[in-house]
Amino acid sequence: MTLHADVAALLAGAAIIDVDVDEAVADGHVRSCAYRRVVQVTAAARSRDGDRAIVAAILRDPDEMASKTAVVDLVDRIARKATGAAEFRRWSAELLPETDRLTGESYREFIRGRVHDWLFYLSVEDGQVPTASELADVTYWMQRLLAEGSRSLPVLALLAESGSERKIRNIAANRSRSREPGTR
What we know:
Distance between the termini: 59 Å
Helix content: over 70%
Shape: elongated
Order of helices and strands: HHHHHHHHHHH
Number of strands: 0
Strand content: under 5%
């Protein structure tokens, strides 16, 4: 397929009619905005059946930075909606082979790392308390997300002890103290 055909199919599939396909093909910024809108519609859909085809079309774009950004946005949106790690693991396993389309190894690894981070997060949300070595395998971004949002005292204690940066350790320690029984 050509870039024009991919962009046209993505826009049509998302029922986005106010974007000129020729302009999107000619202008990477317009195309990137169109991808963000396609991702938003895709993530909001109840069915996940077409996600792999959408990711494949986006990743055929020669602008790998824009396509990686759109796919990461989709990963983030789906992870936030997932009911647990098992559901997200099944969904991401369908998409990860599509990342092999990217010639830039760093882009492939970034997407795979984001999936790994979300699997970690969802496992924690499911009640798993990670080890310090498991915590060390996730990004600063994920550690900070957990430090700022986790409601688990054991997870906050682990982050306060083993977070990768002082800022993460401080956030987790402060939140842990404020969540101790008997305090407000």
